[in-house]
UniProtKB/TrEMBL annotation:
Lineage, uppermost ranks: Bacteria, Pseudomonadati, Bacteroidota, Sphingobacteriia, Sphingobacteriales
InterPro entries reported in the protein's UniProt record: TPR-like_helical_dom_sf
Protein name: Uncharacterized protein
Organism from which the protein derives: Sphingobacterium detergens
Superkingdom of origin organism: Bacteria
Length: 354
């Protein structure tokens, strides 16, 4: 190809990209995906979804964009079109029925076929925009969540949090949470989704991570104990009631519960200690998930009743009856074994005052 022809094609491609999104939209019909798409869609950009913002007023548009030629070109019909399709985000500020383009970021998501991106979305809650991306080569994949908060003084959405989770081919689950200070120079209008999690210049102010394999109680206990004490308040970001249930029940047949990750004599100590650890970390709902299962499997295990009683006690007065019941069972079992002297005085005091 002659050099002049090459530069002409390159120039035309860049020109198409620079004017792809409509700068101004006047919407006389009701605000909907269909009506907005009528004004937004061109040969090079196609609206995928919208999300309405109230702070400030406007509409976020997730779109697909041809990064070479346009969607009508034969290339996109006969060759690897998804590999040359970017997925971006635009924001249109609203004033009455007029929508003015404030920014567009062609790198807000992965390209359509990059990293096997399965799903993506942009949702708005008050002043926060959540960018969600699901990707990965295996059956479970990875999930990325980027949270940007609107800063009125800057008139921009600034990175505040990143949530990452996923499961690999070996069944290893990993979760990571990071939060960022107001000094972070990452903004919704120009960040690069594919490189952001690996950008060493973007430093979090708080971070917690946890890796485990469903059903491996001893490994989960070790991982929990490795979390720095000053980060335990972040534990619900990576392990909570729902993840606790998943840990114990992943892959279970509804007709045959507890056949995949059962609690038995070899792991009951670890399972009980996980419940105790979570109770001590004030993750009460997650703790109860483990302690309920321990008691169901080993109804004579007195310490599990003590631990679950503490969970109910910490939940407050509305749960005192449940705490009283567990503490009484604990005392009965301790008496049965002749271990009255080891019953904590606080338990005796509580039972005498309830």
């Amino acid at each position: 190809m002659p050099l002049k022809a090459y530069f002409f094609i390159l120039f035309m491609g860049l020109s198409l990209l620079s004017v792809a999104q409509p700068r101004h939209i006047r919407l006389v019909d009701a605000l909907s995906v269909e009506n907005f798409a009528k004004h937004f869609n061109t040969d090079t950009v196609q609206l995928n979804q919208i999300s309405i913002s109230k702070t400030p007023a406007g509409v976020f548009v997730a779109y697909e964009k041809a990064d070479t030629l346009n969607f009508k070109h034969e290339f996109y019909k006969s060759f690897d079109g998804p590999g040359y399709t970017k997925v971006g985000l635009a924001f249109y500020a609203r004033k009455g029925n007029d929508y003015q383009l404030s920014f567009h970021n062609d790198n807000a998501f992965y390209c359509e076929s990059c990293n096997n991106m399965r799903d993506y979305s942009a949702s708005v809650s008050n002043d926060t925009v959540n960018i969600y991306i699901s990707w990965g080569p295996n059956a479970f994949g990875q999930n990325e969540g980027y949270y940007f908060v609107y800063r009125p003084a800057l008139k921009r959405w600034q990175l505040a949090e990143i949530h990452r989770s996923g499961v690999d081919d070996e069944g290893e689950s990993s979760c990571e949470y990071m939060s960022y200070s107001k000094n972070t120079k990452v903004y919704l209008d120009n960040y690069y989704a594919e490189s952001l999690p690996y950008d060493s210049t973007v430093i979090s102010s708080q971070r917690i991570s946890l890796s485990y394999k469903s059903g491996d109680y001893a490994r989960l206990l070790r991982a929990l104990k490795e979390i720095p004490k000053n980060s335990l308040f972040l534990l619900p970001k990576v392990f909570n009631e729902s993840t606790a249930k998943y840990f114990m029940e992943a892959g279970l047949d509804e007709d045959q519960p507890d056949k995949i990750n059962p609690i038995h004599g070899k792991n009951v100590l670890s399972a009980n200690e996980i419940g105790y650890f979570l109770e001590q970390a004030n993750q009460l709902d997650a703790a109860q998930v483990f302690l309920d299962k321990v008691i169901a499997r080993f109804p004579e295990r007195e310490v599990a009743y003590l631990n679950r009683g503490d969970v109910f006690f910490k939940k407050g007065q509305s749960s005192y009856k449940k705490a009283k019941k567990d503490y009484r069972t604990y005392v009965e079992l301790m008496n049965k074994r002749g271990l009255q002297a080891k019953i904590p005085q606080r338990i005796v005091t509580f039972l005498n005052t309830q």
